[in-house]
């Protein structure tokens, strides 16, 4: 009888160890690659990947030849190419980029004024080949110094924001109409997310702090919603701090993160009401993404520091676990393709006066 019990225990232990082995093998370990960029280039402002391999860097300046350049990758950011781009001979720089398909991209930026070469004119551009080459679609497309947000629903319908409000084109950028005019400080929208071709959310606000006192002097935020593809917008009644990131899983369930003593809020009714999930996030997120209602990631910097931190959650944002840390690194922008492929544009502060652009890649 005793021998039988020992045999049964042995079989159970083998089964448990086998399960553990299967779990370990089926759960890929997350690895972040740190890739310093050549010091010959500067001015990086945005990173955008259309898929796990093809991406581009926006706002890149060639320090050796004194001009703005095109910068693309086709191997997930491991190497970068600088193809000739004649249009950039007259461009003062790209500012934002978005996609409709994996091939067709749109960008906002600046061209030099034809009347006065010393002045810049905001312009709208289009690429048919993943950013390899660009064509100018429209100059002076919105009445401002360039868009803060650019989001393409399809090849014709694109939403942009300016210092005046929200704009939309329905003809691929040739003509633009303002669909929401700003009236309050909390309506400086610079974060956007569309769930589908009709339902979208846009947020932002105004934030100013006194770093010496560690106090928030001004911190206002708001969110607006559209249900007709950006033709009209309704400002939601909830008052927020300045919005740092917006992400929705579907038309009803979404998350927003805020700035200064950053918090995470969640809605399950399409933005009608919001519940505070976490009142003291460990970082101010540049990007907040949820892959399920429970599984998510925040990427950003610790408040009032240059310390980059990446945290993940498996309980819907109630608690967070550190996945990556690097001091003296400031995150500028994040491009998320999916859970396995995340690309971060950052600046490494080598000294008080010296810095180097760095890419963080999760794949």
Cα radius of gyration in angstroms? 23 Å
Overall spatial form: globular
Uncertain segments are: 4-28
Biggest sheet: strands, sense, closure?
Answer: 4 strands, antiparallel
- Give the CA-CA distance, first to last residue: 53 Å
Number of H/I helices? 1
Structural class: mainly beta
Fraction of residues in β-strands: over 45%
Total strands: the figure is 30
Helix fraction bin: under 10%
**Mean pLDDT figure:** 82
Major sheet: arrangement of strands: 1-30-29-28
Any descriptors?
single chain; 363 residues; mainly beta; four-stranded antiparallel sheet; globular
Summarize the structure.
By secondary structure, this protein is mainly beta. The protein contains one helix and 30 strands. It is 7% helix and 47% strand.
Architecture overview:
The strands form 8 sheets. A 4-stranded antiparallel β-sheet has the order 1-30-29-28, with no helix packed on it. The termini are far apart. It is globular, with a radius of gyration of 23 Å. The chain contains 1 helix and 30 strands. By secondary structure, the chain is mainly β.
Topology:
Layout: H1 2-26, E1 32-36, E2 41-42, E3 46-49, E4 55-58, E5 61-62, E6 67-68, E7 72-73, E8 91-99, E9 105-112, E10 120-127, E11 135-139, E12 149-152, E13 158-161, E14 165-169, E15 177-181, E16 189-194, E17 200-210, E18 215-226, E19 234-235, E20 243-248, E21 254-258, E22 264-267, E23 275-278, E24 284-290, E25 296-301, E26 308-313, E27 321-326, E28 329-338, E29 341-349, E30 355-362
Antiparallel strand pairs: 1-30, 2-5, 3-4, 4-7, 5-6, 8-9, 9-10, 10-11, 12-13, 13-14, 14-15, 16-17, 17-18, 18-19, 20-21, 21-22, 22-23, 24-25, 25-26, 26-27, 28-29, 29-30
């Amino acid at each position: 009888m005793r021998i039988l019990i020992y045999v049964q225990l042995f079989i159970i232990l083998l089964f448990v160890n086998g399960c553990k082995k299967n779990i370990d093998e089926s759960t890929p370990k997350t690895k972040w690659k740190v890739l310093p960029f050549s010091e010959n280039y500067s001015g990086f402002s945005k990173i955008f990947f259309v898929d796990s391999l093809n991406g581009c860097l926006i706002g890149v300046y060639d320090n050796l030849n004194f001009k703005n350049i095109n910068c693309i990758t086709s191997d997930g950011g491991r190497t970068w190419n600088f193809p000739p781009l004649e249009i950039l001979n007259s461009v003062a720089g790209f500012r934002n980029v978005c996609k409709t398909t994996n091939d067709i991209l749109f960008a906002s930026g600046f061209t030099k004024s034809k009347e006065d070469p010393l002045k810049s004119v905001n312009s709208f551009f289009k690429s048919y080949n993943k950013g390899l080459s660009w064509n100018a679609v429209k100059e002076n497309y919105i009445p401002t110094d360039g868009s803060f947000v650019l989001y393409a629903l399809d090849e014709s319908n694109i939403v942009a924001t300016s210092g005046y409000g929200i704009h939309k084109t329905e003809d691929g950028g040739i003509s633009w109409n303002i669909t929401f005019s700003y009236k309050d400080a909390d309506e400086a929208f610079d974060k956007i997310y569309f769930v589908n071709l009709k339902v979208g959310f846009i947020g932002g606000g105004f934030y100013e702090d006194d770093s010496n006192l560690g106090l928030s002097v001004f911190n206002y935020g708001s969110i607006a919603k559209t249900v007709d593809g950006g033709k009209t917008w309704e400002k939601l009644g909830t008052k927020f701090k300045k919005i740092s990131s917006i992400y929705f899983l579907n038309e009803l369930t979404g998350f927003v993160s805020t700035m200064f003593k950053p918090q995470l809020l969640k809605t399950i009714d399409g933005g009608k009401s919001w519940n505070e999930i976490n009142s003291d996030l460990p970082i101010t997120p540049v990007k907040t993404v949820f892959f399920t209602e429970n599984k998510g990631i925040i990427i950003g910097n610790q408040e009032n520091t240059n310390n980059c931190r990446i945290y993940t959650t498996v309980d819907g944002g109630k608690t967070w676990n550190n996945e990556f840390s690097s001091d003296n690194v400031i995150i500028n922008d994040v491009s998320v393709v999916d859970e396995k492929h995340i690309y971060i544009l950052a600046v490494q502060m080598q000294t008080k006066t010296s810095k180097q652009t760095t890419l963080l890649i999760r794949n």
